[in-house]
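Review box. Two proteins, two foldings.
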Amino acid sequence: MDDNGIKNIEDWCKIKPYVEEICSFDKNMNDKEIKQVYKDIKEYNPNIKTEKGLWAIFCRRKDEKYKCVQVGSSYNINKELKDILDLMRLEPKKISVNTTFTKKAFSYEIGRDKNSEKYRAMYKEHDNFIFFCINADTFSKERGEYDSVNFSEVKFAFLTKALLWNPAPSTSSRGKKNKEKEIYNKIKNEKITIDW
C-alpha cells in the first residue's frame, strides 16, 4: 500500500486479517438504504462498551482506489460511527432562539464546527464508503509496553496514511493513558519498526 491507497488485491490481503467490515454504502443512498446502514452500525457488536474498540473509514471516488481517511477508537464504536455518519450527511442550518420576552433573541448555526466540516467534506468528495472494526490485539504485535488500542490506531493510520488522522492529545480515560503522540513520534523516527 502506498500514498495512493489500496491499489490491488495484495493491499487488501495486508489489511484483511485485521479488520471486519461493519458496513459499506454509497453516497447516493435512498431512504431504505440509509436506514439499513444505521441498522448495520447499531447492530455491529453492540456489547463492546466496556473495552475500547478501534475503527477505520475507507472511501473512494468513483473508479478510484479506496483510501483510509480516518482511524479512531472509542468505548462505543456503534455510537461514534453513527455520529460520524450523521455529521457526514448534516447540512448546516441557522437556528433562531426565542426567549421569554424576545422573539428571535439570537441565532446560531449548527453544522459549522470542525468535526461537522471535516466529515461533511469527506462525504461530498467521495462516492463509496466502508466502515471497519480493527482487531487491535492481533494488529499490535510490536507494541511493547503500550496499550494495544493506542498502538494499533497509530500503526494503522501510519501504514495506511489516513488522510484526516492526527494523534489524540495525551489524556487519561478509565485509568488508561493515551500515548498516541509518543507512539507516533517513535514510529516516525524509526525507534519502533512496524509492518503488516
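Next protein.
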Amino acid sequence: MRAGNPAGNVRALEYYVQIEPDSPARRRLSWTPERSVGVVYHVIQDGVQKYVTDLLYQTLKSGEMNPRATIEVIETSPQNEKESLLNVALEPGNRVRCNWDPVTDATNYELYRKLAAGSYGDPIYTATDDQESYEFMDSPLTDGSYVYKLVSLDDDEDSTEDEQPIVISTVPERPTNIEGSWNPTTHVLTLTWTASPSVDLNHYAIRHNNGSGQVRIDDAPEDTAPAETWDIDLTGLTGDYEFLVRAVDNDSNEEKNLSQMIAIGVVAGVAQGRPSNPDNVDAVGIAGGKARVSWTYFPSKETGFVSGGVAKEARIYYDNGTGIMDWVTPIATVLMDNPIAPASWSWDSGVLANDTYLFGVRIATDTGGAGFETENTDTHSVTTNDNVPGATNLMVETA
C-alpha cells in the first residue's frame, strides 16, 4: 500500500490508508486490492475531529479483480455540514465547564456525559437555537476519565456529534459559613461549617496558630475532621487563636482557601470577644499647635463569643509628619474601660511642629500591648498652623 502522486504522509492499517490533516486537499491514493476497499478519512476543522465513512470503492471490473485500484480524493467534508465546536474545561471542585458556538442550521442541542469506559445515558443538558450563548457547568464529579458528547440537530433530525474527553483530578470545593460556639462550663470551643459540595470528599483539615502569629498553611494540619464539626478544649490556654478549615479529597488533594477562618481571643481558657473598629474618627488642629483626635465606639458591633463590653483601650498611632504610618508603637493610649453602650472619646496631642500629620485609632481588649487589637488602617490628616518657637514632636495624653 502506498501513497499516490504526489507522495503524502500515509499510514497503512490493513486495507485502510490515512491522509494526515496537513496534507494537500487533493490526493491520489493507489493500492493493491483483494476484493473491495473501504476508504475512511477524517478532517480536523477548528479543533473538531470528524470521521467520514460513507465512501466505498468497488475494485471489481468485468467480473475480474483489478490488479491495481486508484481513488482520487477531490474534496473532504463531513456528511453533515453543521460543525459543532464543543469545548470542555476543568474547573475547581471537580467541575467541568462545557461551551460551544452556534452550529449552522442547528435548532437543538443535546449534551451527554459518560465515563470513558461506560456508555451514554440521557442528556445532562439541552438547549435551543434561540440562546445568545451556550454554556453548561456540570455538577461536581469524582476523579476519573470522562467523555462529553454534543449532538447538534436540525429540523430534519439530521445531526452531527462531537466528543471531547477530559480527565478529572482536582481539589474539592471549599466549605463555607464557618462558625464557632463556646461552652463557658467546659471551656470547649466547637467549630461548625457548611459542607463542601464536592462528591469527591474525604475529610477536612483543621489548622490553627497555637495562640500566636499566623496559621502555617504549608505545614501539616493540627487535626482532621470527618464531618462538619470539630471541638477543642481551651482549658488553661491563653492567646489569640485563629482556625482554618479546608476540604481534602480521596486522593489527598487539599483545596487552598484562606476565607474559612475564625479568630478567638482566649485568656486562661475563657473565650474573649473581638472589638469593632472605631467610628467617626476625626483629627483637627486646635490652638497652641496641637492636634485633637476623636472617635465613637459602638459595642453592638463587637463580634466573637463575648460581646457588649470588650473594648479596654484605644491606641493612637501617627506618622510623625513623614507620611508613613507607624502601626507598631502607639504614641498614646486612652482607657475606654469596656463600655456597654455607645460613647465618644477624644485625645489632645502635645505641641507639634508646623506640619501635616496622619493619625489612626485602633481598639484593644487589654492594656499594655496585650489583648486583641483591631487591624483597621484608616488615617486622618491634620495640619498644625501655630509655629511655636522651640516646639518638638513631644506627645502627651491629656485628661
